[in-house]
Write the structure tokens for this entry.
Amino acid sequence: MDSLSIRPVVTELRLSAFAAHRGGTFPLGPVTLFAGPSGSGKSSVLRAYEALAALAAGAELAQVFPDPAGCVPESIREDTQGRRGFRIGCTVSGAAGPVRLDLAVQAEPEPRIVGERLVCGDRVLLNTALRDPGHGRVQAAWHTGGAVGVTRAPFPDDLLGTALLPLRVAGRTDGQRQVLAAAEQVVVALRAVFPCDPQPLRMRAPARPGDGRLLPGCDNLAAVLHRTRHECARRHTRLTSMAGGGCAGVVSGLGTEELPDGSVRAFLCRAEDGPGRAEAGSGTPLQRLGDGELRYLALALVLLTGPGVLSVDQAAEVPGALQSLTVIADGFDRCLDPNQAARLASLAASVCADGHLRLVGAVNGDGAFARELEGVTMVDLCRDGTGRGYTATPTGGVRCGS
């Protein structure tokens, strides 16, 4: 079996009751772009994905949802005990087969995970439930197989139980090994996430080298360009080529220069500036570029690099060849003109085709620049964002109607 077929990836996101969404089921391909008007719930979809990723990495519920009440759909009323909550989940495909993870989170009166289910095929591998509201625990039951079919134990109500299973399951029986394989598949696929939202205002200034890994806001763009220029000539050449298609003028290079204070500045070299400008340390500084040009450069850099260059926490115990990094880009086309957006979407489709990288983004317009691209899944959200009534569109995307 080749690595493409066993590399775990999230293939479906479910927002059963989250923010503006009720009953939403969203397919995720190598490149998935959510389109729709303001208020349709595009950002909420990406926020739910990021939340699952953070929980899979071991974050506590309060860190992941600082305002849990804001995630509860307005139509959900309190029960007789004053409780309200939300439900999210996903499906992860990989060597263990499709594995479903579903969470029920109580937001009020206090946040806690009150229910979690991990299912592979028709077998429930993990099930948790809140038995005693007075204690900060849920009762967990996981598949064991053999003479004892199920093992039970208390789990914390503020951590993802699936991420705790490797610490609790011995792996002695076939059933236990199935549980471990499914849990590992979900955790590996979810935690390898890089939320990216380039901030032009912070990208223009010189940057300290640091560890040379790109931050989610791309504040240290200049320092990372300096690293890629000296460590990966092939990728830097491709980035220069991309810059030529999305920046004004005829771009001949992307140069960097170390300043006396130890910081690094970056600049764009254009043909009209004359030859050798990159080597001479001169050109158009990033601070003079437009917001769209800076976001275009940053997103192109993200798509052309990987975990070694991006600030992302992947599972260290799993070989990189068996992992897939997911870039989450809210406002993927923000500040971009149609040409820039089309070039980035085409680059994403090309890069993500080999399975090492995936992109989940939201677009401000209708996403027309990407609808004809092979490998791109467009998901159209209606204004009320209910997530009901999906039908296939002529371009192969998915349309959400009320």
Remarks:
- Residues 52 and 190 are 7 Å apart (CA to CA).
- The radius of gyration is 23 Å.
- Confidence is low (pLDDT under 50) at residues 384-395.
- The longest helix spans residues 174-191.
